[in-house]
Each structure stands twice: as structure tokens, then as C-alpha cells.
Amino acid sequence: MASESTEKAYQTVLEHSQRVLDLEKTNQLLRWDSDVMMPPGGAPARASQRTTLSTARNRYLTADALGEALAELDEAALDDERAAVVREVRREHTTAVSVPEELTTRISEINSRAHEAWKSAREANDWSQFGPVVAEHFEAKKEWAHHVDPDSDPYEVVWSQRTGYLAQPHIPLETVDEIFDQLREELVPLIAAIHDSDVELATDALHSDEAAFDVETQQQLNRAALDTLQLDWDRTRFDVAPHPFSFGHPYDVRMTTRYDESDLTEALTGTIHEFGHTAYAHGLPRDEYGTPLGEPRGIGIHESQSRFFENHVGRTEAFWELFLPTVKEQFPSLRDVTPREAYECVNQVFDDNYIRVDADELTYHMHIILRTEIERDLFHDRIDADEIPQLWNEKMEKYLGIRPETDNEGCLQDPHWSQSLPGFVGYTIGSVLAAQLDATMREELDENVDDLIREGRIGPIREWLTETVHRHGQRYRADELVRRATGEDLTADYFLEYAREKYGELYDL
Q: Is 341 a catalytic residue?
């Protein structure tokens, strides 16, 4: 039985954890509102409001009372759940107290201002409206890294020691580099072989040269897709935003997508992707809300859930056998499209894909790699922010054989550098883990996964993911969670095997 002092200290940790997470979730709500509901003139005040919330969060995280409670618990005998709570709160507290409050507040203010600058730059198709605040953000985060760990590579510090929703602790940068090197080595020749293939897929099955797919009907179709995936609407709101995202917790998720009237796949793949994030939030234990046990295990793990549903459900032929009749009900002009043609359409490897969120499963990772190379160069003072458009275009040409003609086609397509550094690593980590989880699920489930999808029985798939990943929150370190879920350390092997098999069949390689 815990001593009175141990129990008091643990309750202090819980109280501060609750306040920190409440403020973080409220800040996310303001971010959602700024993209979905806020009138355009609200931006200056919104930046101030979000900075105030971030500052308050940091004060709870760095409070002397929390530090004293954690010190009291240093040698305490705690059960596994309490030990996990203390471990995760201590990790974030230790990082936060090493950074001056002035710098933390300045970074929060930059993040809020930068997001609004990105939206304005997108509107004007002009990197120069965003570049200066990107440079300011990178400089501030280098300063942050120096305070946290002055003797280590600053880029590794911002990756491994980041706190909050965008953190991904316990997956070393060394592991990331190994995965990226393997993907560079194997995906580039695979993509080249596909481009050389004489196979012609039904690439226009769900596309049109005209505005054939009105937004209102697409909205109904995307809601139908979410019904198919068994979304809990009592805990979800679904809207339109400039860039798709999902923020929330077990009780309330704000989810968005965007529409293209000439292309059904943009919204559908984006919606199914964001559903994966939402399913993770809904699968977290509700009774642990406000503690690390009720929080996702990191942004890379989060991405594994969105990429799982986007790629290993939504891009399967089985899914299109299930869902295509619904598509045809909403858009009768597609009455002659077959499930195989829809499957080929959503899995085509593009010759001219400029936009990451619309990319196929293979070229997607070259988008991530080029962004990561740029941010590392900027972080290590090898380039300046005003060089990014030119460097971006050169890397697109090197890796994908195409060159953007506008900033919106290139370096302005993502808002991530307004708030997150590293901004993109988690997407590839998530994709390779999604394939690893998919392989494990197919071995462990008694029923054939494709049959479950084909028959619309998504329940067993969601239940397996909830049991294996969601319900644990942050009870385990990320590396341990991966081993528990799949029996192995994180590896790109399963993704590459899946890619070779799937695209070899599609393109007759």
C-alpha cells in the first residue's frame, strides 16, 4: 500500500497531467476552428489566444509542485500503470523545465502566427509570405534543442525530445535513417520499373476532365464511407479544411477532408486516412482521459493507424467490391466502372504527382524523404529558407522526375513547418508500421481480412487494432508497443514486400 506522501505526490502528477492535456486539446480545438469556422478577420486574435493556451500548458508542465512530486516518486514502488504515467509525465517535465519560458512562449507565438501565414501564402501562391516565419521557427527550435541537450545533434534532439501531441519518443533517429535509406534504395528502381511498364491501368475510372463530382454529393458519399467503416458519429464532427486533419480524444474528434470536383479519390482517400486517426482516438481508454494512459503513443504510431485504413483497407480491391455500388448510387455516371478498375485507379503510380496527400503508396515516401532532407539542411544551416522553393523543385525532379510550376504545387502544399519539426518523418514511420501490423493481423485473425473488408465486417479489424494498439495508450514505450503488437522491432521489410507483391501484380513486373 502506498504511503501517504507517495499517494499525495501521485495525485499531484495526475492533476498536472489533466491540466496540461486539457489545455493541449483546447488549443487543438482553436486550430480546428481557425481552419473550419473562424471568419478570416479573426486570425490576429487567434494567434494570441493559442499562445496564451500554450503558455499556460507549459506553466503546468514546469510547475515546481510537479517537479517536487516527481522527485518524491523517484524511488517509490508503483504498479505498472502508475509507473507508466510517472515515466511519461517526467519525460515531458524534464524537457520542458530545461527550456526558458520566454523561448517556449515565443515558439508558441511563432507557431500560431505561422499557420495563418501559411494560409495567406497558399491563397497568394507565394512562398515569400511564409518563408520568413519558417526561418524564424527553425531558428527558435535550434535554440530549443540547445537548451534541452547542448551536446547532441540538434535535429536528433527535436525528434527524440519533442513533447505533446506531435512527439514520437522511443523510436531512435538511427532507426528512421535506416528505414529511409532502405526506401531510397528499393523504391526508386521499383518506381522506375513501373514507369517503364507497358501496362495501362484504368487511371481515369474515378476522375474527370470536368467538374463532374459536385461537392455536396461528395460529402454524402464520404459520410457513407465513414458509415461503412463504422465511425461513431456521437463522438465525431466532420468538416472541410484547406488541408485534411483529425484532432481529438476519446470523447470528441474533429475530422476534416477537402474536395476536388474532378477527382473523387482526393476526398475519399483523405477521409479514410483521417478516419484511421479518429479510430485511434476513439479506441483509447475513456476512463484514462487526462493521463498518458489515455493518450496516443506518438505521432508515428498515430500515422500507422491512418495509413492502415487508407492503404490496407481503402486501397484494396475488396473495399471497392464493397463500396463501389454506393459510389454509383451517388454518381450514376460511373455505372460502368468495375471494382477492378476502381482498384487500379486508386493504386496507380503517377508519372506527375506533385501533391503528397494525393500520392500513391510508393511515390509518397519520396515526398517525405525530400522534405526531411530539406528540413535537416535548414536545421544544420546548409541552406536558407528562401532557397527552399528552388531546392524543393530540384529534389522533385531528382526523385520523381517532375518539377513544380508553382509554390502551391511544391513547397506550400503542407502547413507542417508552421508547427512541427521534424514535420514529416512520422508519415513514413506510420506507413511501414501499418504494413507490419497488416501482416501480423492477417496471421492472427481467424477470418480472412480481405473477406472481412469485402463483406463490410470492419468490426474484427478495428477490434484487433484496439486490442493491439489503441487501448494501451502510453502504457508502453513506442519500441515496446511495436514489439508487443508484431513480435519484431520496427522494420521496412514488410512494407517493401507488400509493395513488391502488390505493384508487381498491378504492373506485371
A: no
- Contact yes or no for 489/481 (Cβ under 8 A): no
CA pair distance 242, 132, nearest whole angstrom: 21
Q: Are residues 250 and 113 in the same domain?
A: no
- From the list 24, 92, 116, 274, the catalytic residue is 274
CA–CA separation, 85 and 400 (whole Å): 44
Which residue pairs, CB below 8 angstroms and at least 24 apart, start in 358-365? Answer: 358/265, 358/266, 358/269, 361/311, 361/315, 361/431, 361/499, 362/187, 362/190, 362/191, 362/194, 362/499, 362/503, 363/191, 363/400, 364/427, 364/431, 365/183, 365/187, 365/428, 365/431
Do residues 411 and 274 share a domain?
yes
Q: Is the pTM of this model over 0.70?
A: yes
Q: Domain of residue 265: give its range.
A: 173-507
* Average pLDDT, integer, range 158-162: 94
Cβ–Cβ under 8 Å, residues 170 and 479: yes
Q: Is residue 147 within a helix (H) or strand (E), and if so which, with residue range? A: helix 131-148
Task: Determine how many CB atoms are found less than 10 A away from the CB of residue 357.
Answer: 17
- Pairwise CA distance, residues 471 & 322, whole Å: 28
Length of the chain in terms of residues written? 509
Indicate the SS3 state at residue 240: strand
Q: What is the mean pLDDT of the chain?
A: 95
Residue 420 confidence (pLDDT): 84
**In terms of Cα–Cα distance, which of 146, 120, 147 is closest to 133?**
120
| Residue 1: pLDDT over 60 | no
Query: Which CATH number belongs to the domain containing residue 213 in this structure?
Result: 1.10.1370.30
Residue holding cell 451517388? 330
C-alpha cell at 48: 494570441
End-to-end CA distance of the chain: 64
Claim to verify: residue 256 and residue 193 sit in the same structural domain: yes
Choose the final residue of a domain: 117, 151, 185. 151
Which residue type does 89 have?
Answer: V
Q: Which of 438, 428, 446, 443 is nearest to 492 (CA)?
A: 428
